[in-house]
Amino acid sequence: MYQNLPHPAALDRSRFSRERLESATEITEKKESGLLARATTSGEWRVSKSPRVEMMSERFTVERTRDDFWPDEIVVLRDREAGSWARVVPGQGANVIGFGARVGGKDVETFLQPSDEPTAGRPGGYGAPVLFPFPSRIRGGVARFRGTTFQIDRGPNQPHAIHGLVARRSFQVERLAADSAGAILECSIEADANVLRQFPFPYRFTITYRLTGRSLRVDLRGENRGATTMPLGFGWHPYFRLPLVPGSERAAAIVKVPAKKLWELEPTLVPTGELLPVPADRDFQVARPLGPIFLDDVYTDVTRASDGNACTLTDPSGLTVSVAAGETFREWVIYAPPTRPTICLEPYTCPPDAFNLADRGLDAGVIVLEPGQSWTDWIEMRIE
Fold first, then answer.
1. What CATH number did the domain enclosing 99 receive?
2. In contact, 291 and 303? CB cutoff 8 Å
């Protein structure tokens, strides 16, 4: 019913070590008299009036910039040798809004961009929104966990609460680095009074992006900062271009989803609690063309490889983007709507409405943290 994690003393914290990296150029920012201050590993503070900070190692670069669509500053991670990049907006939920590389002499962006559509949508409909402390929907906005009932806000005209509590919130930049290990951005967020009003469990959530080659590694950490047991779930919602390469056909895109079952969904997209075999028209265990189908499905019973489980999207030209996830990720939501040129390959640790499914005694993958405990896992995107 729940995933119980070991005592915090037994958890591996090495991925989140704050030790200094000898070759790193790490910075911390603070405002002093309206100026931007920088600290290097030597401890020397340098003050600049420029809103743009650029860090460079022999191979990697971290930059800050802005554009006309996103209201907040964008952090750009680059691998100059691989010709790859990742663009992240810490002030908008630490959302990755671009991931691409130079392939065959051309720059290829894999994420859907506002300019790809006749009319740009809302910012939350692009990038890879972070869904924490629960992914997808909570039935009616009412969640139950071990005798506690809590009410989560619903959007206007929404029957359910949806997509967690951090996707539109500003994350704190904890670390930027460009070193021999890659271009790195680490961000964090803590539950504030507005979150605790809805989800009465104090937490700290940290997400670390590391770009190396044509790969973006995403390390995740959720900590229970409260005095009571806390439930959580996590999801990631990347909007890829469909097709990946202009001029290709949507139906010809090749998709692989290593899962044998689906959660049966009600019309408002919350699970009934029943699991169904994947029907033939939605079965992508063996990679095949997407065809004319439109998807908004929750896959489970995944087949795991030694390095995790992965979904892939391959353009007829041969370009492939993969999304792999670690051991606590047991669901995939695949979203390919009829009205937008996109497909989402979304790794989830649990299905929609997981807290309530678990309250009914069902195995819903809810992660349970005792006070002081942490959950860690990873996701990795790769362009091939």
1. 2.70.98.10
2. no
